[in-house]
UniProtKB/TrEMBL annotation:
The chain crosses the membrane at residues 437-458, 470-491, 512-538, 544-565, 572-594, 693-713. Its main location: membrane. Residues 80-332 form the ABC transporter domain. This is ABC transporter G family member 1. It comes from Sesamum latifolium.
């Protein structure tokens, strides 16, 4: 009988009947009901949910995952040399004893087996035996067409889209947001993986029950942490990583060494949780290096691999008989798995490899199948659609499915809901690391202060014109270079994103929109700070509002450009090199160093794709479009020429001579050059300032779209 231990063990008859053959979802509901009766609060306290095997009602098993003749090879490049050639000719495969085929390496070779719901299948073997590769092959995490063989669920081929909905994959690495607490991390996972139709209180109940099952109650309010922030322990991080992937109670659960890094007690507790998941109607397949004796008692089926070949497949209870028949009986005092792994390693080092054990396993398995009257007597003949319908009717939380395989949605929640949850998570994580924004703001303030003091109160003179042009070129390029610190943001989140989108936790488009929204408040503040620090001290003319807007647009375009590069370039240092180089090219062709009409025709295309060109021309037009402002008067026209050194009296005589020659009076106060003349000299005539602003904004959206394409194409998370 299933037993729920709580403050009050008395249950109404109807509820007790519902808990007689419990599923994981029903167990959670039972715990919730007891809490409501005792405390009136839906938030669960610590509880022990004990399910014995005798409490599980005998029923046909609706799910059967079968895989047959799985083979996977990779190309191997090696140095060509006379010595290595003869060595390759002389070398034999240590597994099969057969000559090695040049150019390819077989990772998996003709692997077959079955996994049933209600059971845990463990894939075992030494390092390099192909455990993780087999798990990836079953979870469809390999490039299409790279794996030969078939994987079927209830006799039907699994489509990639459908598999993502009904399965989950727990990676070996811990990929978590460092400044979220354990509870927040699991709650965000529940928001992504559980349907929106499920109430907030039920999602919280699910999270709280999972926290208890994973033994994380004492770390509920502790942040995950990273190298610079103290957080949970390594073992607790591992359990959180498992929790976020099993939050939605999947039908198929794949785990790559879930007990890695845990002590024996924690590892046992994790596998015990996996056993309960299996008993609720899931197929659990995991790789594990060397399970303890207690964990062995929780496993239902095992596959031992050696260099990609099966050396044993069956229940743990058959291990003694198998190795006894092979001529290597397991001593009573030894751990069965340790003995098996040691024997496999010993055979791998022998001249014939494990070929004899591989061949013996094939004959032994054939004999075992022959001795069985009906090997699939306990397996239901339900179709996949019928099995899923039966599973949902028993309370499985399959992403809001209504039971029809054709009606199962690709994504659990609508895009606007994903966008809201992603934005909330990013804001929460960023808010707890204010030092990152503080450093960026400090750098910008220092740069603005230096510019304001160097270009203090520029006058309207020929030199003032050149100084204004230099200020604008440096200020606009500064906004782009400052955006380079956005490069590591996505690079740090890349693998979290790949893990979450691999099984359709949310849409890539939702992530891109959220990523853009979260960056805007910081860009607004930085733009306002830089504009305020430089506009009035430098003595700029024109509209301050437009000056602020073009700086904001520059930050937006620069941030989008760097974000796009972060989706293409996998390494931070390589990304910085590329960003600095490309921004330098943008500045070179912006029109400051060389006017547009002087750029060679074969380089003019670079001028029009330069991100710095448009904000640079926009601020020039904002500064020089006022027709009442004069920048060169009378004798100032001689500044910057050899005549600049002559006395002013002589300059006035020169003006009189020019006046008589031109037929117009030119005095020392006559305006010779206006802002419009400067714009013509700089060849800033093709677009208005507002057009430049909109083009800059459009560049930002364009690079965000390219970022989306890079995620769509380059983040498949497959071998």
């Amino acid at each position: 009988m299933a037993r729920v231990v709580a403050e009050d063990s008395s249950l109404p008859e109807s509820r007790a009947a519902a808990c007689d053959s419990p599923t994981l979802a029903q167990l959670l509901k039972c715990v919730s009901d007891v809490r409501k009766e005792v405390t009136g609060d839906e938030t669960p306290l610590h509880s022990v949910v004990d399910v014995s095997s005798s409490g599980i009602e005998t029923r046909p098993l609706p799910f059967l995952l079968s895989f047959s003749h799985l083979t996977y090879s990779v190309r191997v490049t090696s140095k060509v040399g006379l010595t290595s050639f003869f060595r390759r000719r002389a070398a034999d495969d240590p597994v099969s004893g057969e000559p090695l085929s040049s150019g390819t390496k077989t990772i998996l070779s003709d692997i077959s087996g079955v996994a049933r719901d209600g059971e845990i299948m463990a894939v075992m073997g030494a390092s390099g035996s192909g455990k993780s590769t087999l798990i990836d092959a079953l979870a469809n995490r390999m490039a299409k067409g790279s794996v030969k063989g078939s994987v079927k669920l209830n006799g039907e081929e699994l489509e990639s889209r459908f598999l993502k909905v009904i399965s989950a994959y727990v990676m070996q690495d811990d990929l978590l947001f460092p400044m979220l607490t354990v509870e927040e991390t699991l709650m965000f996972a529940a928001e992504f993986r559980l349907p929106r139709t499920l109430s907030k209180s039920k999602k919280k109940l699910r999270v709280q029950a999972l926290i208890d099952q994973l033994g994380l109650r004492n770390a509920t309010k502790t942040v995950i942490g990273d190298e610079g922030h103290r957080g949970v322990s390594g073992g607790e991080r591992r359990r959180v990583s498992i929790g976020i992937d099993i939050i939605h109670d999947p039908i198929l659960l794949f785990l790559d060494e879930p007990t890695s890094g845990l002590d024996s007690t924690s590892a046992y507790m994790v596998v015990k949780v996996l056993q309960r998941i299996a008993q609720s109607g899931s197929i659990v397949i995991m790789s594990i290096h060397q399970p303890s004796y207690r964990i062995m008692g929780l496993l239902d089926r095992m596959i031992f691999l050696s260099r990609g070949k099966t050396v044993y497949s069956g229940p743990p209870s058959n291990l003694p008989l198998f190795f006894s028949d092979f001529g290597h009986p397991i001593p009573d005092s030894e751990n069965r798995t340790e003995f098996a792994l040691d024997l496999i390693r010993e055979l791998e080092g022998s001249p014939g490899g494990t070929k004899s054990l591989v061949e013996f396993n094939k004959s032994w398995q054939a004999l075992e199948r022959g001795n069985q009257i009906n090997p699939t007597a306990n397996v239901s003949n339900l179709s996949l659609k019928e099995a899923i319908t039966a599973s949902i009717s028993r309370g499985k939380l399959v992403s809001g499915s209504n039971g029809s395989t054709s009606m199962i949605p690709t994504f659990t929640n609508p895009s606007w809901f994903e966008f809201a949850v992603l934005s909330k998570r990013s804001f929460t994580n960023s808010r707890r690391m204010p030092e990152l924004f503080g450093v960026r703001l400090a750098a910008l303030v220092v740069t603005g202060f230096i510019l304001a003091t160097v270009f203090w109160r520029l006058d309207r003179s020929p030199k003032g014109i050149q100084e204004r042009l230099g200020f604008f070129a440096f200020a606009m390029s500064t906004t782009f270079y400052t955006c380079a610190d956005a490069l590591p943001v996505f690079l740090q989140e890349r693998y979290i994103f790949m893990r979450e989108t691999a099984y359709n936790a949310y849409r890539r488009s939702s992530y891109v929109l959220s990523h853009s929204l979260v960056s805007l408040p910081a860009l607004l503040f930085l733009s306002l700070a830089f504009a305020a620090i430089t506009f009035w001290p430098v003595g700029l003319d024109g509209s301050f509002l437009f000056y602020f807007l073009i700086i904001l647009a520059s930050f937006w375009a620069g941030s989008s450009f760097v974000t796009f590069l972060s989706g293409v370039v996998p390494h931070v240092m390589l990304g910085y090199v590329i960003v600095v180089a490309i921004l330098a090219y943008f500045l070179l062709f912006s029109g400051f160093f060389i006017n547009r009409d002087r750029i060679p025709p074969y380089w003019i295309w670079f001028h029009y794709i330069s991100l710095v060109k448009y904000p640079y021309e926009a601020v020039l037009q904002n500064e020089f479009t006022d027709p009442t402002k004069c920048f060169v008067r009378g004798i100032q026209m001689f500044d910057g020429t050899p005549l600049a050194a002559v006395p002013n009296a002589l300059k006035l005589k020169l003006l009189e001579g020019m006046s008589s020659s031109l037929g117009m009076k030119i005095t020392s106060g006559t305006c010779v050059t206006t802002g419009a003349d400067i714009l013509k000299q700089q060849v800033v005539t093709d677009l208005s300032k507002w057009s430049c602003l909109w083009v800059t904004v459009a560049w930002g959206f364009f690079f965000r779209f390219l970022f989306y394409l890079s995620l769509l194409i380059g983040s498949k998370n497959k071998r």
